[in-house]
């Protein structure tokens, strides 16, 4: 599951960014700001997971919620994900998987007991429900209820880091 959103009203700022020469430095600053902003989503997801977690088991979903940087082919795109460790994996783009029609599709793993919260493979049954158990989402609302705060936090950190770099003369 992913949620995409677009910041609008930043046309002048984006033109100024395009004029900058050091794209790698700008992308590093954007990733750092995105990670700080997504910590709000991580905390909201951890609170939601704590409400549904069974204290009688040694597994803890909220301890397995993590932020990971994603990859993008577009140099101007920053991808930051919040998810549960031990989640779904993608089939590799190998000849065998392409031939069998699996390449790019996801498969569920059984998780790992080496994760900080133990083996919490069952989190997706709680999040999305099953035919016998209704969904009790905690990850999706963590983002949807905090989009404005995440956007504001990203803008605050990113603008601050860009302004600091410009003052120091590191970005020209």
From TrEMBL:
Query: What is this protein's record name?
Result: HK97 gp10 family phage protein
């Amino acid at each position: 599951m992913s949620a995409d959103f677009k910041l609008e009203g930043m046309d002048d700022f984006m033109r100024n960014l395009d004029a900058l020469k050091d794209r790698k430095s700008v992308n590093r600053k954007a990733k750092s700001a995105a990670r700080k902003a997504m910590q709000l989503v991580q905390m909201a997801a951890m609170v939601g997971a704590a409400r549904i977690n069974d204290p009688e088991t040694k597994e803890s979903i909220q301890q397995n919620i993590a932020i990971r940087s994603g990859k993008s082919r577009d140099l101007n795109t920053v991808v930051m994900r919040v998810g549960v460790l031990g989640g779904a994996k993608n089939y590799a783009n190998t000849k065998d998987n392409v031939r069998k029609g699996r390449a790019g599709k996801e498969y569920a793993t059984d998780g790992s007991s080496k994760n900080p919260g133990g083996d919490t493979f069952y989190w997706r049954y709680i999040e999305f429900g099953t035919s016998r158990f209704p969904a009790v989402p905690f990850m999706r609302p963590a983002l949807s209820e905090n989009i404005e705060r995440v956007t504001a936090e990203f803008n605050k950190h990113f603008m601050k880091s860009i302004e600091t770099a410009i003052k120091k003369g590191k970005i020209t």
